[in-house]
Design goal:
Distance between the termini: 41 Å
Number of strands: 0
Radius of gyration: 21 Å
Number of domains: 1
Order of helices and strands: HHHH
Helix content: over 70%
Structural class: mainly alpha
Length: 158
């Protein structure tokens, strides 16, 4: 009987260890996929077909592409946040889901991005290029930031 209890305890300890490892693997995969997808999109001319339609069509295309990028960015930062909450893997329990300095930094960065792009687009204020300029700015800054995060948090991915 003692043998059965010992085996069950060892097995349950192994399962408890596997759960954070499975979660870590899942978060790494989700984050890596979002980053890879956006790196490829940043090299493509996403709105090449829209160029024939003029500034308003280009602007709408950039808005639509920006929504895709924003979703991938959110997946990516949520993956980083989740990995940070899991800790180094040596702790027996993950960190609490409290707000991390990373979360505060990302909120500040999002405000910076939006204010910077609003400011940049004012040079075309009153024209039909302003929406396209704003959306293009958001895409570029988001792609750059995702690459920056990839460098800063490279150790989370192995």
């Amino acid at each position: 009987m003692k043998w059965c209890v010992a085996i069950l305890l060892c097995a349950s300890a192994g399962l408890a260890q596997d759960q954070p490892n499975a979660a870590r693997s899942r978060y790494r995969q989700q984050g890596a996929e979002a980053l890879t997808k956006e790196r490829a999109r940043s090299k493509a001319n996403l709105c090449a077909d829209a160029e024939k339609g003029g500034n308003s069509i280009i602007g709408q295309c950039l808005v639509d592409q920006g929504k895709v990028t924003e979703q991938d960015y959110l997946i990516y930062i949520r993956s980083i946040g989740a990995l940070l909450r899991l800790g180094s893997g040596t702790a027996s329990t993950p960190l609490p889901p409290e707000r991390l300095p990373f979360d505060l930094a990302e909120e500040a960065w999002q405000r910076y991005r939006d204010k910077s792009c609003i400011s940049m687009a004012t040079q075309w204020e009153g024209g039909d290029q302003a929406p396209a300029a704003y959306s293009d700015c958001r895409l570029e800054l988001t792609w750059n930031h995702m690459n920056e995060l990839a460098d800063l948090y490279a150790d989370l991915w192995h």
